[in-house]
Amino acid sequence: MLGASSTPAQVRAYVREHPVRSTAGLARGFMQANLLAVPQRHAFDFLLFAQRNPKPCPIVGVLEAGQYSSPLLPGGDIRTDVPGYRVFAEGQLVAEPADALAHWREDLVGFLIGCSFTFETALADNGIALAHIEQGRNVPMYRTNIATERAGIFGGPMVVSMRPIPAAQVADAVRVTSRYPQVHGAPVHVGNPEEIGIGDVSQPDFGEAVDIPAGHIPVFWACGVTPQAVVMDSCPELAITHQPGKMLVTDARDVDYQVP
Amino acid sequence: MLGASSTPAQVRAYVREHPVRSTAGLARGFMQANLLAVPQRHAFDFLLFAQRNPKPCPIVGVLEAGQYSSPLLPGGDIRTDVPGYRVFAEGQLVAEPADALAHWREDLVGFLIGCSFTFETALADNGIALAHIEQGRNVPMYRTNIATERAGIFGGPMVVSMRPIPAAQVADAVRVTSRYPQVHGAPVHVGNPEEIGIGDVSQPDFGEAVDIPAGHIPVFWACGVTPQAVVMDSCPELAITHQPGKMLVTDARDVDYQVP
């Protein structure tokens, strides 16, 4: 059985063979990553897009064309070790396979992008309860009217994740997450969802809705699902991503991404 | 006359026409940047090199091929607004012109890299005196035996800058600089220079030697001159850089690079 004390290698080996609902809470203390793979000819554009949009797209590792493993996943394989994949052709979702072997190409460059699960551990350690975990749901994510900065073919809206935070703890939540600039860092918005183009907070574009308890304020962080929204808008010939909430569990430690 | 209260635009306009010894201390509060420009066909490799080596090569901006200005230097031109340039052909230094107009090519991609001048302001604000400034010299920089992580054609030794710090303030210097991960962050080494391959601290490879006062410990930070050492080792057909200490003064504010 997988759990908080599983090693990253154990999680990767398990999800290679079995479905899981989400990797949240598994291999506690180790960094989980979003995946985006695009053909080599778009790789500079995407790496530049990430450099220009570090809050939604903090790059924590790059697997060059033909490379399937790295020190972030020793003995692993990015084509099989994510619990679920999405395949986009010309921006259209065409498949959601359990492994990406049948869709992978030799010229794909794989980008691993930091995930907010890292700072959620830090929030919990600082006494800030997370509603989606208490309610047993995936975190809700939304397309916003916040534009990313374009690079080459890549551009589109920023996706954010939302966590309801008690008013008295909003400042703590900002302080704690700002210490993790490589995993989305401080929030991009606090309060009124409409100001960032979210019409109905109970209808997330990705993940699951959560109830906002009385006295809580919705707080929004840049989200590593942004590349998927950008792929839908930018239409590269092929892109392979993880399914939201089903992350690549790496051997990097959360604490390595903490400053100061 | 240029000084701490000059605006970035004033500094850029002045150095376009006049030589200066160094940009240290000019336009206080604004970020200064290292420059490396390489042909487009090497741009992905270099951006990946920077992603893999964020301490020596924190990218703060990228000017794509044919682009000479950006919001970091409104109205400016990267071909003229650095006080002094270096031109490398196949890894060999072939010219040190006052402007780069005669050497620039349409296919060059310009990378702006964070500079330790940003955290020096923060060190001074925190009561930590800087020996090279008190002694009226450029900061000493050294090639080390610390290898960078390779990407494509780019690889080579890390270059570090050294500042003597009073033993009682070493912890403060670490704490303060670690809040600036995009401008080299925390030191890479504290103490014995020989351990990182520096045989004689009085003979820097770049910049000028400083005297180490009694009771001070040499502290070493990753340095934005690293790309120049890497170019010398990696031999791209053409590379254009700033001259060490003569930086591009940008309109970005130092405080924008501070976490948390």
UniProtKB/TrEMBL annotation, chains A, B:
Entry keyword Lyase: yes
Keywords: Lyase
GO molecular function list: lyase activity
Mitochondrion listed as a keyword: no
Record-linked InterPro entries: D-Glu_cyclase, Putative_hydro-lyase, UPF0317
Coiled-coil region(s): none
Domain of life: Bacteria
EC number in record: 4.2.1.-
Pfam family, one: D-Glu_cyclase
NCBIfam families: PRK05463.1 (NF003969)
Record family assignment: Belongs to the D-glutamate cyclase family.
Protein name as it appears in the record: Putative hydro-lyase G7Y31_09105
Species: Corynebacterium lizhenjunii
